[in-house]
Amino acid sequence: MSLKKLAIIFFSFVFVLLAVDIVAKAEQEQVLTVDEAIQLFQQQGKKQAAVEGYIVGYTQNAGKYTKEPAEFGDTNVAIAASPDEVNADKIMPVQLPIGEVRKAVNVKDHPENMGKKVRLTGTLDTYFGSPGLKAVTAYAFQDKETQKVSDVIASPNGGEVEKGTAVTLSTRAEGAAIYYTLDGSNPTSQSIRYNEQIILNENSVIKAIAVKEGFENSNIATFSFTMIKNEPVRIHDIQGKSHISSYNGKDVKAVTGIVTQVDKSGFYMQDPQSDEDPATSEGIYVYKKDSGVKVGDLVSVDGQVEEFIGQGYADRFDTDLSITEIKAKYVIVKESNQKLPEAVVLGENGVKIPDTIIDNDGFGIFDPAEDAIDFYESLEGMLVTVPQPKVVGPQKNGNLYVTTANGSQKVTTKFGTPLLKADNANPERLSIKVARNYVAKSGDQLLGDVTGIVGYDYGNYRISPIAELPALQDGGFKQLGANIQPRLDKLTIATYNIENFSANKKDTSDEKVRRLAYAIKYNLKMPDIIGVQEMQDNNGTMNDGTTDASLSAKRLIDAIQAIRGPKYEYVEIAPENNKDGGAPGANIRVGFFYNPSRVKLAQKPVLLEKNVVRIGQNNTLFDDTRKPLAAEFTFQGQNIVVISNHLNSKLGDASPFGKIQPLVLKSEARRVQLAEEVNGFVKGIQGRHANAPVVALGDMNDFDFSKPMQALKGDIMKEMLETVPQENRYTYIHDGNAQVLDHIFVTNNIAPHTIVDPVHLNSNVMEEHGRMSDHDPVLAQIDLKKAS
């Protein structure tokens, strides 16, 4: 035999011995290194294991890890055998389940965990496309100090167990005493001392420490146990009192329910035998294509429970809640034509919807009576009835937001849309799935009840009707004109986001141009100055380097003249190509239309050092964001500066009903800085010219009570929308919430002589009703003579 063949045989033998040793360690419930765990998974696939390694970062995408705290989330950590590991093949992503494990281990809330050594017990499984660890039931940080007692080990070490299971606790530290708790509190030397096996008869969490004289106490080890039911598993057992099922990843058999709705990928079913616990859902989705079932069938399902991330935006795996479903292997129809389970009635005549709090404890306590996010989870997959829903916003993308009588008094618009508040996001709003061509507007009334199934997609809970919607009654909304009446001696200024307006007819229709012209002449009553946002270049979304928007402006100017309005002039400073955000090639920017028969663009500016000015032109803070435009105008011998703004969007902010709780607003910090820049610019003007009149207006992409708007206002300006009655204080409706995104700030010296009026032309309606933008304009009138 050749030396080469002998070498191959020898190294093959060594590899087999190593593999056998790794498997033996796993079977003896000993701790695996990360490298050993990766190798074991590659050999044997899914398997329960305890893995020890150093936390080296946060997993962003398959094979992509970050050590930057600003980019951390709380849903996972990445571990490796070395704290300095950078090779993605040697790093293991670990999914952190909601609860004690996530709270303690995640690096978003605990960046100090970076570099720490931790032991995690869970299931080896594919995660982010590579060998990972899921369904973690126990964790323990490993201290580097040799004078610390070794951590407590449990056998079994968590997961599903049968009633009556005996748990053994131990530590490698000879002579150490073990103390434990069962009530969730952290153990001390005054807790229960471990002398004999702990018998479990219900779902339990054991926390334990090891104590030895002369040594520092061990870290607290936590072990979570769920009882396996001897009787058949029912839907409410799978759903449980949690957002994540304790059966996640487990096989279940003979789960029964009545089919309530069928779609192309599977069906919903609901158990007709409720456990009478409102915290546990009786409904669930079954993933099984071509199942052959129909509504009313009583079925029995075998399959595997999984937490599935449904339809959503690109970042949904980091932001959206999961849907508990059964990935079916077998579906047996036992009976047909069964009566559907009774639907849960929502609102004051049934179950009150939490109407203040979405989540106040970071998923710490499952509390459907108080937290709306838990309330809707407790109904996931179930039939619900919404009595006499009232439409609170225009239908958009197949979502119809409604409210129903809920036994609470809310501040709403005249047409019933709840107003977004700093301390109340109105979680009682309900989204009903409808066809995208369904036409409805704020204030319309459905003349009957709607029954459907509670599901989740695109970051929100939604109700999918099981029958045709009842007839819709017109709520009476009409597009009206501003209440402010023009005066020869008073200046009128408007702000208007005209939503991606271009000379290109493929991007902007003639009908939209006609509607905008009509609105400016008749509804806004021909303002002297109009600060606009989202003016696109001449060829719109054609990405060819064009930045000039003179033809886009001319298109609207000509349309106003065609209906015998004033001949406006337009002023802007064009952005660099694709440098200010928005659709590629469109180059949205801010600008001003002004009526030269009433106001003049100051040729020799007094208040500005030059006319016109882009704020933040060379400031990296404004990268990929519209630069505010400041222009000085002369009105009847008096000068005034107007600043048109379009601050950075809210992209990147967490969804109110997403997995990131408490809510994280990633875009806010930058918007605060941008607002501070504008505030500083205004201060500079008044520093050079005391009591100079300045107006800062535009689509600020934030609310009147928000930190950015407080920063913009500072101590030198007043937000004039604050003077408007609450029922009229909105310019935008998003997901059934009326809110202020478009603002008019004026310096304190002219505030007493300024009135404003939000003109509700668009936010309440669809294009079928005359909508021309997604924002309402706001009109202001200033008595400059009195102010001076």
From TrEMBL:
Ranges where the GH29D-like beta-sandwich domain occurs: 156-221
Signal peptide start-end: none
Pfam families in alphabetical order: CHB_HEX_C_1, DUF6359, Exo_endo_phos
Positions of the Endonuclease/exonuclease/phosphatase domain: 494-775
Domain Endonuclease YhcR N-terminal: 32-141
Protein name (record): DUF6359 domain-containing protein
Source organism (scientific name): Bacillus bruguierae
